[in-house]
Structure formats: structure tokens, C-alpha cells
UniProtKB/TrEMBL annotation:
Name of the protein: Globin domain-containing protein
Stretches of the chain forming a coiled coil according to its record: none
Keywords attached to this entry: Heme, Iron, Metal-binding, Oxygen transport, Transport
Residue ranges of every copy of the Globin domain listed in the record: 1-132
Alphabetical list of PROSITE patterns matching this protein: GLOBIN
């Protein structure tokens, strides 16, 4: 992964984190309205803050990603109960990258999109591993 691109691009948008979260969820619900019912009972202010906190943690952990992988697996396991499906992960990742690019404007570079696409692949992979483990335990 291009850690410099990930860190630099996140640092571009982090000062506008609240705006990023507003933009992300607006874009997510417009792009994938089928996911909106998953948030029907969610406190969206809290949801936005939790996602932003998770992104900040990811940014801080990029140079030691192995340390955060167990937490990502736990997060994936919890998302099973929320109704998250494997197909949702790609939509969430691409929507979040798009929101970051929009917010950064002309400062966004293609390398940032490429780096975040790779990083979200790792994140989604870990979360999906946790989801699969949770589903196996539930079925047993």
C-alpha cells in the first residue's frame, strides 16, 4: 500500500471530517438506497461520529495495520447483526473514496483513489472474515 498517499490524502480531508461524513452518507443513500433501512434505527449523528473515529484509527494504524485487524474482524462480526451484506462493502468503500475526492477537490490525485481502493480492500477483507466467523457461530 502507498502509505504516504493514504496519510496525505486523509490529512487533506480530516479537518473537514463532519462535512465528509455528511457527504458520505448523503452519497451512500443516493447511490445505494437499499442500504438505508440498515440505518433506520441508528442515531445518525452517533453513526457519523463512529465512522469518522474508525477512519481516524485506521489513519493512525496504517503503518502497523496488523494491530488493528482483530478490531476490524470484530467490527465485521457486529455488522452481521445490522444486516450488512458482502456486496455493501464495495459500495461503502467506493462511496467513501468518492466523498473524500469531492471534498478534497483539485487537491485529490488518482494515486489517492488507488491507495484507498487497496486499503479498503484490506479493511473489507478483515471485516468479511469476522462476518463469516460470526455467521458460522450463529449457525452452529
Amino acid at each position: 500500500m502507498d502509505l504516504n498517499a493514504l496519510e496525505g490524502s486523509f490529512d487533506l480531508v480530516a479537518p473537514r471530517g463532519d462535512e465528509l461524513m455528511e457527504l458520505f452518507y448523503a452519497r451512500l443513500f443516493a447511490t445505494a438506497p437499499a442500504v438505508q433501512p440498515l440505518f433506520a434505527h441508528a442515531d445518525m449523528a452517533r453513526q457519523r461520529q463512529m465512522l469518522l473515529s474508525a477512519l481516524v484509527l485506521l489513519r493512525r494504524s496504517l503503518r502497523n495495520l496488523d494491530a488493528v485487524l482483530p478490531r476490524l474482524r470484530e467490527l465485521g462480526a457486529r455488522h452481521v447483526a445490522y444486516g450488512a451484506e458482502e456486496a455493501h462493502y464495495a459500495v461503502v468503500g467506493s462511496t467513501l473514496i468518492g466523498a473524500m475526492a469531492e471534498l478534497a477537490g483539485g487537491d485529490w490525485r488518482i494515486e489517492y483513489t488507488e491507495a484507498w481502493t487497496e486499503a479498503f480492500g484490506v479493511v473489507a477483507g478483515a471485516m468479511l472474515e469476522g462476518a463469516a466467523e460470526a455467521e458460522l457461530l450463529a449457525a452452529a
